[in-house]
Amino acid sequence: MRNCARYLIFFQYIGTNYSGVVKVPPQQLVKKGVQDHLEDAVRKLKPLNPVSMSISSRTDAGVHALSNSAHFDLQRRDDKPPFAAHILVDALNYHLRTEQISVTRAHRVAGDFHARFCARSRTYVYRVALGACFQSPVPLTERDFSWNLPDTELDVEAMREAAALLVGVHDFSSFRAVNSDLPFKNPVRTLDAATIRTGVSFAQAHFHREVPFLELTFTSRSFLYKQVRRMTGALVAVGKGRLSVPQLKEVLEARDSLAYPQGLGAPAHGLFLTRVDYSDSDLQFSPQTDLQLSSEE
């Protein structure tokens, strides 16, 4: 399409009120996906082309993102030049102002760029609050943003020992949940990092008591369905003494989703997608490259 530009956008959202990040079927009217609202915002810019967005990283209902990404094409009317990146960000956020979704930055990219397949790594952080119970609640700022456990402490060293077993190239079949993609997805993934460190409450300086936090961080080029939540749940079980480090190793080596103990998976609302990384060259747009791609079509 003449005068059509492809954009990569980075965006954040609070996942509580959405069915997940990807769009939902039109007949599902209860909750929309984040993608539905992003595409609606692009349509309000009145492009000539149909709006279709490709999301880099799927997140489930209730999961949050500080930085997800997506690409889409946009052709302006009347031969107007493509939007400058900062103008596009402002325009999209104007139309998203009633949602808990915000575009943080945009890049014009080559016409063959793909937000999902060009991503080099993705990083998730899972937040766990300790000592949370009816008598000692967490701040409201944490209620929907952490897994709030009544335990006052976990065996963090055992959790780190267990997390080290997960790093590297493995068949992660035991840590993926069953869904319709199961027969078609290669279960072998490379987990680049799995770290556990202390964290803080968003309201630490203003709450009446100090709430201990743990942050579990996982980095990989890609993850299986619910892999991060299941790894988190297993590591917390190790911290509680419900699962030993050798038992977690046995679960991993079983390479079978049925080997994962029932009831261990971590809830969605403590999980944040925090980074999607690309190579610098992918984010440097070259008009000559786009002209060459157009001539080859």
TrEMBL record:
E.C. number(s) listed in UniProt: 5.4.99.12
GO molecular function per UniProt: RNA binding; tRNA pseudouridine(38-40) synthase activity
Keyword Isomerase: yes
Reactions catalysed, as given in the entry: a uridine in tRNA = a pseudouridine in tRNA; uridine(38/39/40) in tRNA = pseudouridine(38/39/40) in tRNA
UniProt keyword tRNA processing, yes or no: yes
Active site per UniProt: D60 (nucleophile)
SUPFAM superfamilies: Pseudouridine synthase (SSF55120)
Residue intervals of the Pseudouridine synthase I TruA alpha/beta domain: 11-117, 162-279
One Pfam short name: PseudoU_synth_1
Residues at which substrate binds: Y124
GO BP annotations, alphabetical order: tRNA pseudouridine synthesis
Keywords attached to this entry: Isomerase, tRNA processing
InterPro entries linked: PsdUridine_synth_cat_dom_sf, PsdUridine_synth_TruA, PsdUridine_synth_TruA_a/b_dom, PsdUridine_synth_TruA_C, TruA/RsuA/RluB/E/F_N
PANTHER family assigned to the protein according to its UniProt record, in alphabetical order: PSEUDOURIDYLATE SYNTHASE, TRNA PSEUDOURIDINE SYNTHASE-LIKE 1
Similarity comment: Belongs to the tRNA pseudouridine synthase TruA family.
HAMAP family xref list: TruA
Full protein name: tRNA pseudouridine synthase
Organism of this sequence: Takifugu flavidus
